[in-house]
Structures are given as C-alpha cells and as structure tokens.
Write a structure and sequence with these properties.
- By secondary structure, the protein is mainly α.
- The chain contains 21 helices and no strands.
- It has a domain of 67 residues: Serine Threonine Protein Phosphatase 5, Tetratricopeptide repeat.
- Helix 8 packs antiparallel against helix 9, helix 10 runs antiparallel to helix 11 and helix 15 packs antiparallel against helix 16.
- It is elongated, with a radius of gyration of 26 Å.
C-alpha cells in the first residue's frame, strides 16, 4: 500500500492567480489520488507545479503520483524538490524514506526517516520503520529508543512491539520475551515474532520455554525450515545432540541453502568431536554465502581448538572484516592472537570486544581481557 502522506487544502500565502491555480489543481490531484486514479492525479499535480513551481506540497504529491506509476526515480526527484523548497516538510522526508526503503537503499532510507522524526517525533510509522532498518543493519542499541517510542505512541500495534522485542533481543533477552509475547498476542499470525519469542527464551536461558515455542512452530508449519533450525539450536544448547542433528538435517532438506542450519550443524559435530564433519558443514555454509560472518567465526573457532592458528586467524579476520561491530567475532580474533602469543594485539581486540558486547555478555570478554595481562 502506498503511503498517503499528502497535505490537502494547503493555502499559499501569496495572493496571485498562479497560486490559486496551483491550489486548485493540487486539491483536484488529491481527489484523484485518493480515488486510486494515479494518472489523473499526476496530470493535476503537474498542472499545480507548472502554475506555481514554489509550492512544495504539490511537488511532494507529484512524487506520490510518480511512485504509484512505478516511476521511482522521478518520484525521488519530486520529493527532493519539495524538500529544497521546504526542508521542514516532514511528509516529504517520510515519503522519500519509504521509497528508499522499498528500493532497498537502506542508508538513504535511514537518514530520511531520521529527518522525518526530527520534524515529527510523534510519527509511529517512521519510528517503527527506522527501528526496523537499524535492526537490519545490526544496530540494535540505536534502534531501541525508536522502538520504545513507537510502543509509547501506538501500544496496540503488533509491529511496534515486534521491533522492540528484536531490538532488546541482543541486549536484554528477558525483556525481549515480554515485548515479543505482546506482539504475538496482538498478531497471532505473525510467525516471525513467534520465532523471535523462542529465540528470546533461548538467549535468556529458559530452554524449556524455548523448546515448547519452537515445537509449536514446527507443528503449525511442518514445511518451515527456519522453525526446524531454531529448534535444532535449542536442542544444541540443551546438549541433546542427536535430536539437534535430526532437526537441523530436516531444515536442510527443506532448504539446502539454509546457512544458519549448516553452521549450527557444524557446531554440534564439533561438540561431538567430529572435526571433519564440522569443517565440511561450515564450508558448505560458506559455499552458499561467502559473506556469512557467523560461518567464518565458527570455522575460526574450530581451527583454533585444533591448533591451526594461521587458518584460524585468517577466518577470524574475515568474520571481523564482514561484521566489525559484533563482539563475538572480535573476541574470537582476540582468542586466536592470544593463542599465538601476541599479547598486545590480543589485548586490543579483547578490549574492543568488551566495548561492543551487550551487558549480559560483557563478563566473558572482560575475563579474556584479564588473561592478556595488565
């Protein structure tokens, strides 16, 4: 659905024939747009900007019409022109952000949502969308205040509670579970939030609740590979290796390109002492996605545990290169260079891991930092 971020009935201060004509055509365009006739709306909005080129609202609405007709670059130019005329026109910032979001131009979308919220902090749509994009970029701590604001503004919106839960997941899993339960209550059909709830239980250490949640998802949709993967992770955490392997293999049968399932399977094999099988699983994950940092980190850990420090370092550096702000990846690099006896370098990486880690994970990295010396 297109965003209806338009300003109807705007009256221009200047009293002139051209300004009245522009206001008239803009109003007619809004009528056509709301009736679903984008071509007629486009014609009226073009007449408005031709009559009075300094009317930012008409350029904003023209952008919406172009967007409805799948003329995305023309829409972007119209939204930008509206903002050149009036940089404080919040709807134009939101419309531009929404279009960038649709086009997967994430950095530009984030900036435009931020601009929209600077002008209208009480916009729950922009708050939810900005939080969602920041989460996609792995910036949970930055997403959290926007997610909290969205919930405060729209307590009955399931998507607001969902982004809050996802933002809290790496920072405070128990709180994340509360938010995601609320999201699932409001929208029982949102299986992504239901899966997130199970992950929150897992991260909080509540394995029985996590298992119940994941088994319910598998039962509800026996063809959903992600549910089998998540259940396999829970069983892995519980030390039930045989059951974990069975569910992870089921996930891969349903979705052979499932990188998380291959990484989890490799970890289980490693815990069972099956080094070759573990390495093969990690490499298969990388064959499907060479940029899967989690697979590089898992491979680095396997190499380190078996004394292949040069291979471990190469894999760990690749993981950090791909995702430099993830504490686990930086910490694994610290472990590798510490094992190689390079204390100063290990200390620097361990200190960075401490700085990057959520509070619940910080203790383990602080212990690693102490092991590198004063």
């Amino acid at each position: 659905m297109l965003p209806i971020m338009v300003l109807a009935g705007f009256i221009i201060a200047a009293v002139s024939c051209s300004s009245y004509q522009a206001t008239y055509h803009n109003a007619r365009g809004l009528e056509h747009y709301r009736a679903g006739d984008a071509e007629a709306a486009l014609a009226e909005f073009r007449r408005a900007v031709e009559a009075y080129p300094e009317m930012p609202e008409a350029h904003n609405n023209l952008g919406l019409a172009w967007q409805a007709l799948d003329e995305d670059e023309r829409a972007i130019r119209s939204f930008r022109q509206a903002l050149r005329l009036d940089h404080e026109l919040a709807p134009a910032h939101f419309n531009l952000a929404w279009l960038y979001d649709e086009l997967d131009r994430v950095p530009q979308a984030i900036k435009s949502y931020e601009n929209a919220l600077d002008l209208d902090a009480n916009d729950p749509d922009a708050s939810v969308d900005l939080a969602r994009l920041l989460l996609r970029e792995g910036r949970a701590a930055e997403a959290l205040p926007y997610a909290r604001r969205a919930v405060a503004l729209a307590d009955e919106r399931a998507d607001a509670w969902a982004v809050l839960g996802r933002a809290l997941l790496p920072l405070a899993p128990a709180e994340a579970a509360v938010a995601l339960r609320r999201a699932v209550t409001l929208d029982p059909g949102d299986r992504t939030s239901a899966l997130g709830l199970g992950e929150a239980y897992l991260e909080a250490g509540d394995l029985p609740s996590a298992e119940l949640q994941m088994r319910a998802l598998v039962k509800a949709d026996p063809e959903w590979a992600e549910a089998y993967t998540a259940l396999g992770r829970v069983l892995e955490a519980a030390g039930r290796h045989g059951a974990a392997i069975g569910h992870l293999l089921q996930a891969l049968e349903l979705q052979p390109s499932n990188v998380p399932a291959r990484v989890s399977l490799g970890r289980v094999y490693s815990q069972l002492g099956l080094e070759e099988a573990a390495a093969a699983s990690f490499r298969q994950a990388l064959a499907h996605d060479p940029d899967a940092a989690v697979a590089w980190e898992a491979l680095a850990r396997l190499h380190r545990e078996h004394g292949r420090l040069a291979d471990a370092e190469a894999a760990a550096r690749r993981a950090v290169e791909l995702e430099p702000t993830v504490a686990a990846f930086v910490g694994e690099l610290a472990r590798v260079v510490l094992a190689a006896g390079r204390l100063d370098e290990a200390r620097a990486h361990a200190r960075m891991a401490v700085e990057l880690a959520p509070s619940a994970e910080r203790a383990s990295w602080e212990e690693l930092l102490r092991r590198t010396g004063p």
